[in-house]
Design brief:
heterodimer; A: mainly alpha; Cytochrome Bc1 Complex, Chain D, domain 2; 11 helices; globular; B: mainly beta; Immunoglobulin-like; four-stranded mixed beta sheet; 1 helix; 11% helix; 41% strand; binds copper (II) ion
Chain lengths: 340, 101
C-alpha cells in the first residue's frame, strides 16, 4: 500500500520535472499541489478576487495600507523593516517582524506564535488590528458592498454567498495559496542536476543535515517542521511579546517559543527572527549553531539548541547552501486598477 | 499490524485496564489512531533524539505531560469516553486520535 503510493508520487513527480530524484532527496522537493480546505477550493475567480483585496488599500481605515504594504512581493513578501515600523496604520509600530507570506499555505499554524489555525482565520486579524489596517469588519463589509465593481467578482467567486467577512477571508486566503516558492537552484540539484549548486553549498547542505543539526527543526521541503521552539534569543524572565506562544496559553512547553520559519527564499526576507533583530544570514546561522544568542539562563530552551562547534568556514558553507534556496521572483502582476 | 496490537492488548490487560504504548518517533505518534477503554492508560515513549510532549485540551481527559526528554516515558489515564486529539506542543504536526469507549 505505502510502496504503491510512493511509486505513484515518484512517477507523477517524474512527469512534472522530467527527472527522477533519488530517494533521500525526495523529501526536499516542492509538492505539486497546495493544501486547500474542502469549502474553499482554488478557482481562477477566487484567486483573482483575493489578489485585488490583498493589494487594495481601501481595506484599511483611511485607504493607506494594504496587506502588500507589509508583505510586499517586491520585498520578498515581507517588509524588510524590523518590526513593521512606519508602515502600519498612521505609522504605528506592531510588536513583531512581518513574516513571509510565501508558502504560508503549507503551515498548520499562522503567526509567529501560531495563534491562527488557517489562512482564512488569519486574514481577518490584520484588517482589524489597530497597528495594522485599523478597519473594523463591521465597517469594512458595507464599505466593500458599496463599491459596485466588487459585486460581480464576489458573485463569480462565491455564487450566492455575498460580500461578508467569510468570503473576504476565503478570497484572500485563495490568493495567498498561490504565493508559493519557485524553483531554486537547490530544487534543480535535488532533482539530479549536480551542477546546479556550488561545492560549498553542497557541503553546507551536508552540515545542515548533519553536524549542525539544523534539520532537527528546519526539516522537509519547506525547511520547517512547523515546530515551536525557544532558541534562546532572550534570557532571564521573559515579558510581553517575548513570551511567544505562551501568550496563547500558559503551557509550560510554550514558554518563549516561536514558530520555526521556512528558509526558502530566506535571502529575500531579512531582517531575521521574530523581532527582526538580526540582519545577516551569517549572524543568524552563528546564533542557531552556537546554542542560541544566550547560552545560559534561558528557561525552556530547546534541547537541540546546543553549541555544534562549527568553524567560520563551516558557517559560511551553510550560508551558501541557504542562498541556493532562493528561486526567481513569482510572476505576479500587481494590480494597478481596482473595482470602482 | 492489527494482530500485534491485539496481542499487546491482551498481554497487558490487568484488573485495572490496559496500557497502550504510543511511540514518539520521527516526529510522529505511532500509532496515530487508537481505540481504548475508559480506565485504560496511555504510555508515551520518546524514541527520538530530541524532546517531545503530549497534551490534549479535551475537557474530560485533559492532560499535559510537559517536556519529555529523549528515552523517557510518561503514562496518563483515560478518564472519560469520547473522541479527542492528542498533540505535541513542540511539533504540532504530531497528532494522535484517541477514541475512548
Ligand atoms: Cu514532538
Amino acid at each position: 500500500m505505502i510502496k504503491k503510493s510512493l511509486l505513484a508520487t515518484l512517477v507523477v513527480s517524474a512527469l512534472f520535472t522530467g527527472a527522477t530524484a533519488n530517494d533521500d532527496m525526495k523529501k526536499w522537493l516542492r509538492p505539486t499541489e497546495v493544501p486547500q480546505p474542502t469549502n474553499n477550493k482554488l478557482t481562477p475567480a477566487r484567486i483573482e478576487l483575493g489578489k485585488l483585496l490583498y493589494f487594495d488599500k481601501r481595506l484599511s481605515k483611511n485607504d493607506t495600507v494594504s496587506c502588500a504594504t507589509c508583505h510586499s512581493p517586491a520585498r520578498g513578501w515581507t517588509d524588510e523593516v524590523p518590526t513593521s515600523k512606519a508602515v502600519g496604520f498612521e505609522g504605528r509600530v506592531g510588536p513583531r517582524n512581518s513574516p513571509v507570506v510565501l508558502n504560508s499555505a503549507y503551515q498548520r499554524h499562522q503567526f509567529w506564535d501560531g495563534r491562527a489555525k488557517s489562512l482564512e482565520q488569519q486574514a481577518l486579524g490584520p484588517i482589524e488590528a489597530d497597528v495594522e489596517m485599523n478597519m473594523p469588519l463591521k465597517e469594512l463589509v458595507p464599505k466593500l458592498q458599496k463599491i459596485k465593481g466588487y459585486k460581480p467578482l464576489f458573485d463569480k467567486a462565491y455564487p450566492g454567498e455575498g460580500i461578508n467577512k467569510e468570503t473576504i477571508a476565503k478570497a484572500i486566503a485563495s490568493f495567498e495559496r498561490t504565493v508559493v516558492s519557485t524553483e531554486s537552484p537547490f530544487d534543480k540539484y535535488a532533482k539530479g542536476d549536480k551542477k546546479a549548486i556550488s561545492k560549498d553549498a553542497k557541503e553546507g547542505f551536508s552540515l545542515f543535515k548533519g553536524k549542525a543539526h539544523c534539520v532537527d527543526c528546519h526539516d522537509g521541503f519547506n525547511f520547517t517542521d512547523g515546530s515551536f521552539q525557544n532558541i534562546g534569543l532572550h534570557d532571564g524572565n521573559l515579558t510581553g511579546k517575548e513570551l511567544g506562544r505562551y501568550n496563547v496559553k500558559k503551557r509550560a512547553a510554550w514558554y518563549g517559543v516561536f514558530k520555526t520559519p521556512t528558509l526558502r527564499d530566506v535571502t529575500k526576507s531579512y531582517p531575521y527572527f521574530h523581532d527582526g533583530s538580526v540582519k545577516t544570514l551569517k549572524e543568524a546561522t552563528v546564533i542557531c549553531s552556537h546554542g542560541g544568542r544566550f547560552e545560559h539562563n534561558v528557561k525552556n530552551k530547546s534541547d537541540v539548541m546546543v553549541d555544534r562547534h562549527l568553524s567560520e568556514a563551516e558557517v559560511d558553507k551553510i550560508v551558501e547552501f541557504m542562498k541556493s534556496l532562493t528561486g526567481p521572483d513569482l510572476d505576479i502582476k500587481v494590480p494597478t486598477k481596482f473595482p470602482q | 499490524m492489527k494482530k500485534i496490537a491485539i496481542a499487546a492488548l491482551l498481554a497487558s490487560v490487568t484488573l485495572f485496564g490496559a496500557d497502550h504504548v504510543i511511540d514518539q518517533k520521527g516526529k510522529t505518534f505511532i500509532p496515530h489512531e487508537i481505540t481504548v477503554k475508559v480506565g485504560d492508560t496511555l504510555t508515551f515513549v520518546n524514541s527520538d533524539p530530541f524532546a517531545h510532549n503530549a497534551y490534549t485540551d479535551d475537557e474530560a481527559n485533559e492532560f499535559d505531560i510537559g517536556m519529555q526528554a529523549p528515552g523517557t516515558k510518561k503514562t496518563v489515564p483515560v478518564k472519560a469516553a469520547g473522541k479527542f486529539d492528542v498533540e505535541c506542543a513542540i511539533h504540532p504536526n504530531m497528532l494522535l486520535e484517541v477514541t475512548a469507549n
